[in-house]
Amino acid sequence: MPSLKTLLICLTATIYPFSAQAQSNAPQHCSSEPVSAVYQVKMSENGKKSDKYQVELWRNAQQVAIRYPANAITELWELTVNNKLHLVRYFDAHGRGIEYQPNEIKGNQDWSLKRQLISDTLISQMTLRKTRGKDCQTVEYYAKKSDGSKLDLQWFPKQQLIKHFKVKSSASETEWTLLETSKDAQQIAQEFQTLALYDTTDYTDIGDNESDPFLLNMINLGFVEHGGSGFYDADGHDIGDGHAHHH
Q: Which of 23, 83, 109, 184 is in the most buried spot, having the most CB atoms within 10 Å?
């Protein structure tokens, strides 16, 4: 099993064309939920390229599911009434999940970070260089230098989705590229319904269930520590452990 530390920082090549239906949406409907998006992630360290892998974003009005197909893990994030985050980490191959309450989640509890894979705070600290396109296809181009790192972002403000995001330092480079999006409400609802059928165990109850072979295996693999926060803090640094490093 790979180190679980590094996942969440990256984007790559060509964006697939969006459907004519998406392009014809009125601007005020561009960001309406539900929506799904598939990203390709490329990472390299010290000039040595790692394998590409994909990250899926599934979003409705109340929930965000971030799936890492290479590890068959889906993290379901929900915003509680007092603006804290609730997490269920699902293990798709097993049909099981581990549930974390807000006080059991380490790191940044920023809803925008989960919903968009980049925080509103970080975007606000970047410099807007130019804007291209119109309506739903409006793209904003941002840049930022921070602590020896250079960040470049292409952002769909109407859709509230990353189009392309690169973080480059002297030692590493991470790149996210949007491959496709969908507004198929039925398919997206089905994804969330499937997750809801999985058996879940509360994080606090794991100690009482260590004879459970599934939980024992997940503990041994290092997937059961406090819920990780993932992605970037306001300065573009990786915060928390990632869970989708490619095999």
A: 109
